[in-house]
Amino acid sequence: MTFVLPPAPEFGDPLDLEPAPQVLAFLARRRSASALTLAEPAPGEDDLATLLRLASRVPDHGKLAPWRFVVLRGIDKAAFAADLEALALSRGDAKAVAKLGKLKVPPLCVAVISSPKPGEIPEWEQRLSAGAACTTLLYATLAMGYGANWITDWYAYDAEANAILGLSGEEKLAGFILMGTPREAPLERERPQLAALVSRQAAAR
């Protein structure tokens, strides 16, 4: 299925805000699918282009685009996973090899790379923008009717694994967004109790 978005607005176009109750309903039931249940079909190239376009609309202080996307599919994804497995085996780390299952099974993966730019915008804000790109990519994939999961695991933080993916300088892996069609419906999980997490700032006296 191909999803057609409205034309991208031009710079400076007025963008009227309208209520979007369907978006609220989606968020109220949003649930990631288990990575190990994801199979074909995954988003095709047209849908993927749409997803990346949406992910690039996240808040971005300074308009720096402090992130980039690496698409892993088919033989390219298999080769990346094989290189990671070889790395883990060279260290005698069977547990690390087993953890690659979440990467190997889904048919499509988009690695979101946090790539901060020098200048006045704090690095922390640029890292947060990369996280927002992960979230939007995850949500948009689910909204298309596919399954998706955001993972990291050891190969997101390992310097040699990062080098295999082509990270350089101050770049960090914000997340692997795994995509496909779930073979089974995800089950609702426990959610946090907001009473313990929300406070009100009292005015100073």
Give a nutshell description of this structure.
It is built from seven helices and five strands, in the order H-E-H-E-H-H-H-E-H-E-H-E. With 205 residues, it is α+β, with helices and mostly antiparallel strands.
Please give a structural write-up.
With 205 residues, the protein is α+β, with helices and mostly antiparallel strands. The chain has a single domain, classed as NADH Oxidase. It has helices spanning 21-29, 45-55, 74-90, 94-98, 101-104, 123-143, 159-165, and strands at 38-39, 67-73, 108-114, 147-151, 172-182. Strands 1, 2, 3, 4 and 5 form a five-stranded antiparallel β-sheet that branches. Helix 2 runs antiparallel to helix 6 (123-143) and helix 3 packs antiparallel against helix 7 (159-165). The chain is globular. It starts with 20 loop residues before the first helix and ends in a 23-residue tail after the last strand. The mean pLDDT is 96.
Compile the SSE list and pairings:
Layout: H1 21-29, E1 38-39, H2 45-55, E2 67-73, H3 74-90, H4 94-98, H5 101-104, E3 108-114, H6 123-143, E4 147-151, H7 159-165, E5 172-182
Antiparallel strand pairs: 1-5, 2-3, 3-5, 4-5
Helix pairs in contact: 2-6, 3-7
The biggest sheet amounts to: 5 strands, antiparallel
Q: How many structural domains in the coordinates?
A: 1
Under CATH, the topology can be stated as NADH Oxidase
CATH superfamily: NADH Oxidase
Question: What's the alpha carbon Rg, rounded to whole Å?
Answer: 19 Å
C-alpha geometry: globular
The residue-averaged pLDDT reads 96
Structural class: alpha+beta
State the distance separating the first and last CA atoms. Answer: 59 Å
